[in-house]
From TrEMBL:
Pfam families: GAF_2. SUPFAM superfamilies: GAF domain-like (SSF55781). This is GAF domain-containing protein. InterPro entries: GAF, GAF-like_dom_sf.
Amino acid sequence: MRIWTSLTSRARDQAGALSPHLACSTCAAELGVSGASLLLTAGRNTLELASTTSQRVRELEELQARAGEGPGIDALESGWPILAEDLASTRSRRRWPTFAAEAVSRGVHAMFSLPLALGAVPLGVFDLVHDTPGELEHTQLLDALLYADTALALAIDVRSGITAPLGVGVDPGAEPALWRSEVHQAIDMVANQLGVTVVEALVRLRAYAFDHQLTLVDAGRAVVEHRIPAGRVAAEISSAAGGEPGSR
């Protein structure tokens, strides 16, 4: 609840909307790091940038992609957080020889990469970067994980064509929808039925839920219980959008 309150407060102060960029920038400011970015899977072991706090961080993510190495790539492949507290260290230079050297030359000395997933299926990575070496405190890491999940949820809403109202909060005792097993199962069913990526299946299920005034969990449960055929999720959204989910 505290994370959501911070986001809505900053959105009001800036007269803006809730967005993945706001989640990235608020996270960086609250944790005292130099920048943050959200990347989503675009295929097998491929990431695309969904949001970032600056051009400098964008260029760092492009460097990871070109080099084919870095904390973010390792986090995606392993499914575990990769906390590179000192990119100038011998360990970092051995692990990521090209990326670490280039990052340090650009003034980036630490990078913390948090994987995003639905069960065992990777969805993306949330990266934090800092100009000075050092570790994240335990409470900072926990907050970063919450910001990562929030940024992911907002990115899915953006792709679904949904604008989150500032007045809508969350139940502080509720389990996040993306952690629920029925949502995982439904997204897998939609992805297999349509032959799309897991991220695209999540976008379509979220758009369907929004259009029918359902929660993501309720829509997922209906798909799993075959009360909503997986193919119908895409058919209705495509019809309403003129062929493209999220363009309503």
